[in-house]
Write a structure and sequence with these properties.
Chain lengths: ~120, ~110
């Protein structure tokens, strides 16, 4: 298996622009997680899905952030409009374990820079 | 505040030495995991220890869990330059909705 795939790997955009991050989980995994990593706040869980349904989005910082999972093999995280404080590395992870608390498999991340 | 906190924040050792990292947490947990993150990469799962386990081994890794002290340690024996990375503990607890909560991490540098 190719592992969790994320695109793009790097994104540089200007404040106010829309940003869309993409993730393809490992085939057969039924949980998908979106994390954000910064030096100041560490690794934060933004939202997670089970069987394509959002279960907990309490970590989504603002209404500017939205996430979808239209099918089992694809998810997007959208920021509209983007702000400089959104600059971070965004990770997608997936797992198969019931309850979502087993080993998680992380993608390589998308490094977002908002100017 | 974070559920898990690692200690030390940074550690620098010579190749061949052992490295010990500690993690403390605040609430009762279901299990605790350790992850490694190489610079510019995603996290990689190392080992999972359940709340009813006290010690677990995987290759050069040894993890202990003391639920009475709400702490865990990760020991890497005979370290190698390739072990240079950040190491994170992650806990899942009913109080946190059974989501994984990561600590701030320990930066390990192994000098050759």
């Amino acid at each position: 298996d190719a592992g969790v795939i994320q695109s793009p790997r790097h994104e540089v955009t200007e404040m106010g622009q829309e940003v869309t991050l993409r993730c393809k989980p490992i085939s057969g995994h039924d949980y998908l997680f979106w994390y954000r990593q910064t030096m100041m706040r560490g690794l934060e869980l933004l939202i997670y899905f089970n069987n394509n349904v959002p279960i907990d989005d309490s970590g989504m910082p603002e209404d500017r952030f939205s996430a979808k999972m239209p099918n089992a093999s694809f998810s997007t995280l959208k920021i509209q409009p983007s702000e400089p404080r959104d600059s971070a590395v965004y990770f997608c992870a997936s797992t198969k374990t019931t309850g979502g608390y087993g080993e998680q498999f992380f993608g390589p991340g998308t490094r977002l820079t908002v100017l | 505040s974070q559920q898990g906190e690692e200690d030390p924040q940074a550690l620098s050792i010579q190749e061949g030495e052992n490295a010990t990292m500690n993690c403390s947490y605040k609430t009762s947990i279901n299990n605790l995991q350790w992850y490694r993150q190489n610079s510019g990469r995603g996290l990689v799962h190392l080992i999972l220890i359940r709340s009813n386990e006290r010690e677990k081994h995987s290759g050069r890794l040894r993890v202990t869990l003391d639920t009475s002290k709400k702490s865990s340690s990760l020991l890497i024996t005979a370290s190698r330059a390739a072990d240079t990375a950040s190491y994170f503990c992650a806990t899942d607890a009913k109080e946190y909705g059974n989501k994984l909560v990561f600590g701030a991490g320990t930066i390990l540098r192994v000098k050759s």
